């Protein structure tokens, strides 16, 4: 049986994330084999890996080169540089990826840039599209210094919105302003953001009191997209002011549901064009070989840097 190297989450190992031999993929007719060059890390997948009680193959984001095209004739041809998205198992030398989750890369987009796009970029893109007509509308983005947040700030500005970013660590304010936020709120309390509302759209990833406060800041017909609970806390809010405002929406967002209706390949192709044109920038704060997965994962969970971490697959 042919084997490859892959990152495995093993609860029996102190560092949890280790390189191991694994069975080589056997693609379905609608899947291409991709030789992976770079992967990026997201807090959700790392949290899942750290908490697993049985060995598993984590990984969502990848970039590399088509080694074998899909047997059904769909998707990119052999040798094409691509970015791809998987629900698990992307952190490996060789992976099978459905062609509706792949997009080609022009030569001026690196594997490192591309690897940041699948989860963070698609989440920002598809979440912003839950509200239309953003030109000169106020948009609030919590967790604005994270991977999703920095992409969301840029994309909201490209859409013509007036963007307010909320972050916990004041040291990351410069990064959020560089991404395009006109105003930045720092600290644990979201209430000061009310001075720049009410908001047509709020992208909320903190949960707890942050979500409860965000729901009080919506303009009539406004939408709050909830896509994370980084605080780990429950949310309690008064429904009266929420429904009395009129036409408000609270949307529960998870990317794995969204791509059932909006294929990852479409969104990735749009994001890649923005990167290639210089209109969107991937902030990569940490680059390392994938042998350092455990250390980089811990840095990510400890919030030691803004933006993204990318690992090179040797």
Comma- or semicolon-separated keywords:
globular, 15 strands, 314 residues, Rossmann fold, 7-stranded mixed β-sheet, Quinone Oxidoreductase, Chain A, domain 1, alpha/beta, 29% strand, 6-stranded parallel β-sheet, 10 helices
Task: Summarize the structure in words.
This protein is α/β, with parallel strands linked by helices and about 325 residues long. It has two domains: about 5-120 and about 260-310, Quinone Oxidoreductase, Chain A, domain 1; about 130-250, 3-Layer(aba) Sandwich (Rossmann fold), CATH 3.40.50.720. The chain contains ten helices and 15 strands. It has helices spanning about 45-50, 110-115, 115-130, 145-160, 175-180, 210-215, 240-245, 255-260, 265-275, 295-300; strands at about 5-10, 15-25, 30-40, 60-70, 80-85, 95-100, 100-105, 140, 160-165, 185, 200-205, 220-225, 250, 285-290, 310. The strands form three sheets. Strands 3, 4, 5, 6, 7, 14 and 15 form a seven-stranded mixed sheet that branches. Strands 10-9-8-11-12-13 form a six-stranded parallel sheet, with helices on both faces. Helix 3 packs across helix 4 and helix 3 (about 115-130) packs across helix 9. The radius of gyration is 20 Å and the shape is globular. The mean pLDDT is about 95.
């Amino acid at each position: 049986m042919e084997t490859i190297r892959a990152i495995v989450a093993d609860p029996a190992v102190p560092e949890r994330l280790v390189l191991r031999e694994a069975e080589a993929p056997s693609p379905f007719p609608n899947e291409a084999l991709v030789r992976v060059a770079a992967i990026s890390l997201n807090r959700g997948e790392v949290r899942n890996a750290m908490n697993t009680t049985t060995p598993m193959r984590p990984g969502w984001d990848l970039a590399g080169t088509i080694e074998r095209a899909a047997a059904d004739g769909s998707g990119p041809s052999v040798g094409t540089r691509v970015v791809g998205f998987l629900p698990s198992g992307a952190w490996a030398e060789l992976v099978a990826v459905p062609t509706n989750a792949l997009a080609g890369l022009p030569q001026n987009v690196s594997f490192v840039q591309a690897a940041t796009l699948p989860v963070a970029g698609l989440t920002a893109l598809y979440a912003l599209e839950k509200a239309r007509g953003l030109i000169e509308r106020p948009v609030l983005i919590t967790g604005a210094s994270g991977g999703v947040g920095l992409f969301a700030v840029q994309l909201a500005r490209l859409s013509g919105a007036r963007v307010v970013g909320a972050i916990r660590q004041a040291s990351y304010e410069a990064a959020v302003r560089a991404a395009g936020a006109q105003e930045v709120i720092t600290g644990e309390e979201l209430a000061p953001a009310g001075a720049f509302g009410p908001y047509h759209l709020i992208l909320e990833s903190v949960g707890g009191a942050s979500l409860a406060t965000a729901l009080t800041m919506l303009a009539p017909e406004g939408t709050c997209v909830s896509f994370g609970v980084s605080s780990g806390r429950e949310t309690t809010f008064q429904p009266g002011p929420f429904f009395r405002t009129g036409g408000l929406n609270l949307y529960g967002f998870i990317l794995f549901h969204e791509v059932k209706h909006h294929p990852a390949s479409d969104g990735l192709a749009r994001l890649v064009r923005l990167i290639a044109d210089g209109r969107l920038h991937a902030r990569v704060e940490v680059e390392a070989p994938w042998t350092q997965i455990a250390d980089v994962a811990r840095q990510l969970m400890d919030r030691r840097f803004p933006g993204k971490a990318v690992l090179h697959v040797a």
